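Contributing new records

If you add data, match the layout below exactly. Sequence lines come first and carry their own label; structure lines follow with theirs. Keep one chain per record. Anything else will be rejected by the validation script.
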Amino acid sequence: MSIRSPLTSATFVAGLLAACGPAASNDAPDAPAPTAPVAEAVEAAPVETVADAPAPQTASRPLPNEGYDWDTRLNAEGRARSMVLAYEVPDTDDQPLNLSCEEGGRRIFAGTQTSGTDVRSVTLASEGIGRTYPVKEAVADELGGGQYVTVELAGNDPTLEAFRDSGWLRMTVEDHTIDMAAQPSSKARQKIATFMAFCNAPYVRP
């Protein structure tokens, strides 16, 4: 989407005002024509180059993908309970993204399979809020090729909070983007909210 420059708009309006100004009287001495005000140049904002640069505002809510939805799994074994929130086709290995955390840990790990072997970052976005996260861990997939990469997010990360409220998340890896929206007829949005509350719950010492 192109953005009209404030300088261009101001100069155009000033030109219209000058052209429509009152004509000089026949009895009055000639006077120099009024000079249109010159709009002050607006300095362009610097381009974000840091890893957590905001994503551009999305125009509309993406449609759900047929067969895919968000689902949770609770693991109550071990010292601390943990939960997984996965975007997947039920009862298959088709899982573009999964999020996981320990109860009250306030850290969330996002994992995805890649085709490349040198993936350095994963970009997540929702409702115009997004960041690019550096890969924390990469494990080679000896059978299928590529890697399984993991990034770490804070429990109160703005992108995840936007995802909790909207029910959809956009992921970009290796120039490939996928929109992951909850099915409107399922309980997926409730499960997303439950997962976020679980990850950020106050820690209770066992």
